[in-house]
Amino acid sequence: MRTDGLSGAAALAVFASLLSTTAAAQWLDYPTPGTPRLPDGRPNLSAPAPRTADGKPDLSGVWRGAGPFYRFNIAQDLEPQDVQPWAEALFLQRVRDSRKDSPLAKCLPVSIPFHNFFDLARIVQTPGLAVILYESPSNPHRTIFMDGRDLPKDPNPTWLGYSVGRWEGDTLVVTTAGFNDKGWLDSAGHPQTESLRITERFRRRDFGHMDFEMTLDDPKVFTRPITMKRERLLAADTELLEDVCENERDSSHMIGGSGLRLSPALLATYAGVYELPSGREFVVTATGDMLFVRGLNEPKLPLLEQSQTQFMSTANPTGFEFVSDAQGRVTHVMVRGAAGDQKATRKGAMPTRPD
Amino acid sequence: MRMRRAVAGLGVALLLAAAPAMAHHAFSAEFDINKPFKLRGTLTKWEMINPHSWFHLDVKDESGAVVAWMIEGGSPNQLIKNGVTKNTLAVGTELVIEGYQAKDGTNKGVGRNLLLTDGRRLFLYSRESEK
Predict the structure, then answer these.
(1) B51 to chain A: which residues are within 8 Å by CB?
(2) Most buried residue, A294, A345, B10, B115, by most Cβ within 10 Å?
């Protein structure tokens, strides 16, 4: 019986391998040696975390970014008083300019927070140091020294800074400083300065799951250290690809914002809860002269003004047009995107605490 | 917990995942959602070079004159991970491309749908959200 099951699985595996005949499949889907497997050959992501000869957890492997939640706007959990006014103003300006001057658009490196939330990263751990390789423009890497050295004093500022690591039990704690002020903390445009210090905590719970915590301490940008906790998942049986940003054909066509500024009073009339035909809701909020949209469990995203009633997502090709009745009350918003036009009916004014 | 994650995934899909391309820049910086197009033309060149794939197309306008267009697709790495190879599409292939034109009015756009003339859809853009 058991033999039958195994041979069935083996036959399936052979069939699957016959289907996967592309060069990419041979390279990108190659089963990583040393990966614990289920009877059907899939990686056993709940197996115990591997350990090195000295008994420490071995974080080595290809890991996915921690998801899009903070990628666009790293400050979305924060209160207005948590962000220094100049940093908030610069953030809003970059949003209005459709982030046309972002490092990413210019083929320059993206920041550590951006990497942590977005790209595939390969961690290679040795007793004295760990290296993190990123699949992102210019394929940057970080070296995390775990040999007891201190961070450099007054180092030359760099994009990804200088990192040292130490173990707290089974958690690798990485401290990084020595950043330049050119990096953007998120894709929407929160700035970093040379005073930035990042603490990352990596705890590999089992073979396929890692608890990840990141604290950003940049008193010139934030009035207090901010901490984000997410889970990272192992990307089993895959590989990083080269990503040299060599064929940049967009930046010469980029146009900044519309130059339009709408009054906070007008924007306040658009704030509210809206319901799509599917029954899903999203919340529109107004902060000063900028509108934000947020769906259930989604990132909070700024909306760019295109006219008195039309707005554009800063994240993707989705348009929002607010429609009012004869009395000037906003009744619905037309959401225009790749899925076609959808009418979202206004259900009511703002909840007191939308987040 | 499992349920929560599934819901979160759907939530992200609503406002984030409609992007036609894994872009290294904001759609709104370059393309105009109010300038949608549907072009039919012949592929003259296909660039699979980071940060974006580009499809160069000869399109006949109303007067019969041939106009060259270039259409942005997904990042090569994303396409490769979706199974695309350099042999997926041959120069000379007739294509129908739906997308949005550049704000500056040049014959340049971003692809939303790429189809063969028999209606078969080519997955040459990524459904994942923009960076």
Answers:
(1) 107, 137, 243, 245, 247-248
(2) A294
Q: How far apart (Å, rounded) are the C-alpha atoms in residues B20 and B37?
A: 14
Chain A's closest residue to B78, CA to CA, is: A241
Q: How many CB atoms lie within 10 A of CB B53?
A: 27
ipTM above threshold 0.90: no
CATH architecture of A61-233: Beta Barrel (2.40)
A279: tokens are 């029954």
User: Can you say whether the dihedral through the CA atoms of A307, A280, B20, B97 is positive or negative?
Assistant: negative
User: Residue type for B16, please?
Assistant: L
Q: Could you give the residue ranges of the DSSP H alpha helices within B1-131?
A: 2-15, 27-30, 76-81
CATH architecture of B2-122: Beta Barrel (2.40)
Q: How far is A99 from chain B (nearest CA, A)?
A: 7
Given a contact cutoff of 8 angstroms between Cβ atoms, the answer to whether B9 and B16 are in contact is no
From the list B29, B85, B106, the residue facing A24 with the nearest CB is B85
Question: Which SS3 state, helix, strand or coil, does residue A113 take?
Answer: helix
Cβ neighbour number for residue A74 with a 10 Å cutoff: 29
Interchain CB distance below 8 Å, B15 and A104: no
Q: Helix or strand or coil: residue A63?
A: strand
Cβ count near A14 (within 10 Å):
10
Domain segments of chain B: what residues?
A: 2-122
Other CB atoms within 10 A of residue A60 CB: 17
Query: Is domain A264-348 classified as CATH 3.20.20.70?
Result: no
Would you write out chain A's pLDDT as a tens digit for each of its 355 residues?
333 333 333 333 333 333 344 455 678 989 999 999 999 999 999 999 999 999 999 999 999 999 878 888 899 889 989 999 999 999 999 988 888 899 988 899 999 999 999 889 999 999 999 999 999 887 899 999 999 999 999 999 999 999 999 999 999 999 999 999 999 999 889 999 999 999 999 999 999 999 999 999 999 999 999 999 999 999 999 999 999 998 888 877 777 677 888 999 999 999 999 999 988 899 999 988 899 998 877 788 889 899 999 998 877 778 899 999 999 899 999 998 767 789 999 998 865 444 4
Query: Number of CB pairs < 8 Å for A and B?
Result: 161
3-state secondary structure of A18: helix
Domain(s) labelled CATH 2.40.128.50 in chain A stretch across: 264-348
Structure-token pair, residue A270: 């658009």
| HSE-CB for A250 with a 13 A CA cutoff | 34
Three-state SS for A15?
A: helix
Phi, psi (deg, nearest 5) at residue A268: -60, -30
Residue whose structure tokens are 């197996």: A47
Q: The pTM is what? A: 0.83
